[in-house]
Amino acid sequence: MPKITYVFPDGSQKEVDVPCGQTVMDGSVRNNLPGIVAECGGSCSCATCHVYVDPDSLACFDEPTHEERELLEFADGLQENSRLSCQLVLTEICEGVRVTVADGNG
């Protein structure tokens, strides 16, 4: 089970074990972490789970889909490493992934 580090806009951090097959969003919601609102429940339709994936962790995930890219265009604070956490499915190689929760989700 990979350990994922969530970094919050205030600089605080929380490390959480998240089972393979779940998403970075699932790990946050199931552990009641702040900042990832996930209004659509993970169906890639709201962008309230916007995160910045640490550059060292980007290779752990598939490339964003066209749908995800379109949603991110409307997200506040868009960066090159912006992703929707509902689309980041964890596998065995994701140990140590770090994401920063975008300020202003929801």
TrEMBL record:
Pfam families documented for this protein: Fer2
Coiled coil (residue ranges): none
Domain of life: Bacteria
Signal peptide, first to last residue: none
Cofactor(s) required, per the database record: [2Fe-2S] cluster
Residue ranges of every copy of the 2Fe-2S ferredoxin-type domain listed in the record: 2-105
Keywords: 2Fe-2S, Iron, Iron-sulfur, Metal-binding
Family (UniProt): Belongs to the adrenodoxin/putidaredoxin family.
Protein name as it appears in the record: 2Fe-2S iron-sulfur cluster-binding protein
Species annotation: Streptomyces humicola
Species lineage: Bacteria, Bacillati, Actinomycetota, Actinomycetes, Kitasatosporales
